[in-house]
Amino acid sequence: MRSNEVARIAGVTVRTLRHYHALGLLPEPPRSANGYRDYAPADLARVLRIKRLASLGFPLACVGEVMAQMDADEPEGDTAADPLAELDRELEQEIARLEGQRRVIASLRAERLRPDLPVPFGQALRLLASDEDLAGLTEEEQATLVIAGHAYGAGEVAELRRVAEALEDSLAVSAIAAFKDRLKSLAADAPEEERAELTAEALEALAPLIPCFSRDNWLRPPTESELLLEEASRVGMNAAQRDVTARIERGIENLMAEHAE
Amino acid sequence: MRSNEVARIAGVTVRTLRHYHALGLLPEPPRSANGYRDYAPADLARVLRIKRLASLGFPLACVGEVMAQMDADEPEGDTAADPLAELDRELEQEIARLEGQRRVIASLRAERLRPDLPVPFGQALRLLASDEDLAGLTEEEQATLVIAGHAYGAGEVAELRRVAEALEDSLAVSAIAAFKDRLKSLAADAPEEERAELTAEALEALAPLIPCFSRDNWLRPPTESELLLEEASRVGMNAAQRDVTARIERGIENLMAEHAE
DNA sequence: CTTGACCCCGACGTTGCGTCATAGTTTTAA
DNA sequence: TTAAAACTATGACGCAACGTCGGGGTCAAG
């Protein structure tokens, strides 16, 4: 039989036969006078066996071993692990992985969240800001948001949700928005009194949120990701703006210390 | 930030960053004086987005498009198909495929069948022959068996099972075994009377099985696979042996015609 | 005698990076 | 201060399982 015939009957391509030859799975048959491969029925049988094992999920690299083990009328028992069992475990893991992906996708679609942010963070964000708010962010702010999304652990996300709930029906929202506007237009050489006033205003607006903050999140040493996050959030700021944000952070820590007593 | 820093925070390798650059997913950042890449936080954010979308199952080739579509505040609705929905369908298909493989493996393991034969054929074979019988086959016979396993359709396999059931508690088994032994030792120049005798003996042994045979399977024109199968089964035979098997086949057809009346 | 259908071999493309190899740079320990 | 360790860059090969292309020989039919 010639390549084409074997291939057609076995339901593979001629290229596949050549591939099996190259991998050593299929012995090279004798050549007829013209150089064409001259396959015997046993070769066809071997192709069928290879194809079948491959269709079960065995990598071709394993198929040779598996067939050899089968032909050696398998003493197995306990010496050789059952390749089928191992393959089955791998398939199970792979399926679990894909199902995990599908679950995430289902959450994203059901809640119409951004696919490129972790689900819990996306949910918290949805509570904190409307779509228009997010659309109005500068590029740096968007970047900070995405980094935060991946830097935040479960603790931080939980805190975000508490904050979001506290913000509902609160005057803090508009106060914080007003503060952010003023901070943006703060000149680098702003005088001391303007900085102090802005800091005080921010702390006043944030005061009702203090009970939501977790001491664990705020007082422990920051992780590498969090340092980077802070750096990212300061990218577009001038000296005065950085000064004010630093003061606010210290102020929050003081407020938390008071609140803890 | 330098490559290593971005990579560590994003949880990828430096090589991965370079790969994203090569695919055009991540813009090349400016270089510092020494030629090192100097990443901005926005680049880190982009890496995180890419990684996230990739982890959902999007091929990297699609990730760029998906992000672009997201950034263009998605008019979608009906113009652009939801990539998440499409991805979800693909994942579903893939999972179904893998589960199919697992089901086959489960059958194989439960019934201790040869993994390189189709399950229904393996089951029928188990009914027809013991493991020792199969171990005693010549290479050509093994090859024929494997080819038959893949050439046979549901109809032939069903017939095999009927035959197997008919063979139970039947004297045909030993008669057929005796015939096979005699056929093997048949000389190429065996005289006419020996051939006729052998044919008659075989037909007599097969007679009780005739009702199991399906006219559809025997009288329709053979498929390409079946021709090959016959060729394979004749590989080791001499002229007299081929003659006898051909006579038997004709004899079976006659018996079936009689039985149909 | 040509056309179309095969055969051969060799080599590149696919996917998502890992892993050298080679060469310059920066940081750190002795 | 210097030598070693750790980073950076580019370029290239490797993996899995073939698909596909290109160039060149073979064979049957019109």
Summed up:
Two copies of one chain form a homodimer. By secondary structure, chain A is mainly alpha-helical.
Order of helices and strands of chain A: HHHHHHHHHHHHHH
Spans of chain A with pLDDT under 50 lasting ≥5 residues? Answer: none
Largest interface (CB within 8 Å) is between:
A-B, 63 and 63 residues
Radius of gyration of chain A: 33 Å
Largest sheet of chain A: none
Oligomeric grouping of the chains: homodimer
Structure description:
By secondary structure, chain A is mainly α. Chain A folds into three domains: 71 residues, Orthogonal Bundle (Multidrug-efflux Transporter Regulator, Chain: A, Domain 2); 36 residues; 143 residues, no CATH class. In chain A, 70% of the residues lie in helices and 0% in strands. The model of chain A has no long low-confidence stretch (mean pLDDT 87). Chains A and B meet through helix 1, helix 3, helix 4, helix 5 and helix 8 of A and helix 1, helix 3, helix 4, helix 5 and helix 8 of B. The structure holds a DNA duplex (30 and 30 nucleotides).
What does the secondary structure layout of this molecule look like, with pairings?
The structure is a homodimer of 261-residue chains.
Chain A: H1 3-10, H2 14-23, H3 41-56, H4 60-71, H5 83-111, H6 119-128, H7 131-135, H8 139-151, H9 154-167, H10 172-184, H11 192-206, H12 215-219, H13 224-233, H14 239-260
Chain A binds a DNA duplex (30 and 30 nucleotides) through helix 2.
